[in-house]
Each structure stands twice: as C-alpha cells, then as structure tokens.
Here is the input.
Amino acid sequence: MDLQLPMTAAALAQRFNGRLVGDGHREVCAVSALEHAGAGDLAFYQQKRFSETVRDLKDAVLLTTEELLVANEALTFVLVSNPQRIFGEVAATFNWYPRGDQRVDPLAKVEASAQVSPDVSVGAFSYVGNGSRIGKGTRILPHCYIGDDVQIGEDCIVFPRVVLNARVSIGNRVHIFSGTVVGSDGFGFLPTEAGLRAVPQIGTVEICDDVRIGANCTIDRATLGATRIGPGTKIDNLVHVGHNCQIGSHCILCAGTGLAGSVILEDEVILGGQVGLGDHVRVGRGAQIGSQGGTTTNLKGNQTYWGTPAVPVKESLSTFRFMKKLPDIWRRLARLESRLGEEPT
Here is the structure.
C-alpha cells in the first residue's frame, strides 16, 4: 500500500478506518519511537504500561486502541484495532530499499534467451543467464549472479552480491539480502578407495511467495528433487539450509541456525538463534526451539523446547537448575565419604 507523506491525521484515520481524537489537521511527516515523538511524528503504543510516557508527550500523532486512549489534549490519536500493523505500513514509506530504475543497466549482462519483463531493474555488473525468467516489478541490484534457467517471480528484491545458481525457482515478493547463495551443491560424499567422492547434486531449490532470506545465508540444492522454503517463511542472517530440507509456511529461522540434509519443518515452526538440527529430523507444526538448542531426533508440534538434546522447556530448566547445584552436591558427597572413611570419588 503506497502512502504519500506528509498527510494529515484526519486523512490517516480515514485511510485505515480509524477514529480520530484531537486535531485532524496535524500533519504526519515522519515516524518515531514513542518516547521521542514530537511535532510531525507518528508513533504507536498498544500496551498499558506506556500510558505514563504518553501523558508527557505533545504535538505528536499516536496510533493506539480505544481501550488505551489517554487524556492528553496536546496529542492527536488515531484509534485502530492493530496499531503496530498500521504503524508498520506507514514506516514502510521510509524504507531504505532501492526502488530501481526499471531498466537493464548498460553495465549488466542479460543473455539473449533470458526473458526479463520490461519494468524489471537489473543493476550494474549483474548477470542473468540463458533461459532465465524474471517477473514484472522485480529489482536485481548490482553485482548479482543469476544462473541459467532461473525463475524469479514478481516484485522481488535481490540485493547486491546474491548468487542464484542454475535452475532455482523464486516466487513472488521474495527478498534476498546480500551475500546469500541459493542452489550451491548439497554436502554429500561417498568413501571410496581413492578417497571421498562427491554425490552429484542434480536437484533444485524452490523458494515460495513472500519469503525473506537474510544476508549471508546458504540454501543447498537437493540431491534429487527440491529443497523447499514454504510461503511466508522468514530466514535471518547466517542461516544454513542443507540439501533436500522441506521448510513449511510461515516458519521463522533466527541467525546462526543450521539444518542438516533432509530436515522437515512443518508450518509455523520457530527456531531461535544458533539452533542445530541433525539430518532427517522432523519438527512438528507450531513447535519452538530456544536459542542454541539442538536435536537429532524428531520433535512433536505445539511445544517449546530448549537445550541439547532439546527437551520440553520446563524439563530443560529443571535440569539446568539441578546442574547449578552439582558443585555443592559434590562437596557434600565428598564430606560424607570422608566421614565414612572412603576416598572421595
């Protein structure tokens, strides 16, 4: 949704079906953190604990709910059901992402057999290989490599120094940040008398619609078939996805996470930072694994896990509390053994 700023508080309320309280002529020119909001700023709050902060502000326009309206005549309020979502849509107006110039830069190379929609941007020193197809509104920024027979949908952004190797498929509205490599070989070797022999990795990678892939990630192509990232999934920086992994829709993979080959994440799984999963592990729908958790066995859905090996979080915290007592337990045991005339173990 494109917004043209500045706009009045009244226009903002009308645009998002909100109720206006205060001066409708007050303009919104920028977005701000709540505690720093002033004249021309839009901020939001949706928790009661911020009410005292709001009482000290003036001249700003605030997004909040009917239930959290505070008496402050120096402010203008727009009351909506989801302030954070509306604030996010307005904040997107200030996004730093380059808009592109809807042309192929003279310093880019697009092979003659590639099909590039007329309004696609291809930045300087980027390469688009034979048979590749790029949908309308997509922006390929400078210094990217798009291999042969790559499919990229509409309204994607491929940031500088991204590599999309041959035959990978990218859906619509996908963002891929700098340094990421999609479709490198999976890590598969067989021992032979002459040493380790690489298993041919002849599959592909499928990235579905509305996926975000952070900076410096690696997503390996399948040995056979496809490594797949489901719709709406968000991947943080420095994440590795091994060959033949199947990641469901609306999953979250935080920074430093590593998935070995053939891992299956069902829908809406959340993996905290530096989580590690062994090969062929299946994690059930809605499961959450806390930071630095790891497992080589399957985990059921709709539970929160932590630790290595990952267990339900209550069990893990109980074990952790017990571990903190181990030095004292050992000292007590040593004293008891001494009294019994035994050598401490």
About this structure: The chain has two domains: 7-94, 109-316. The chain has a mean pLDDT of 94. Residues 293 and 307 are 4 Å apart (CA to CA).
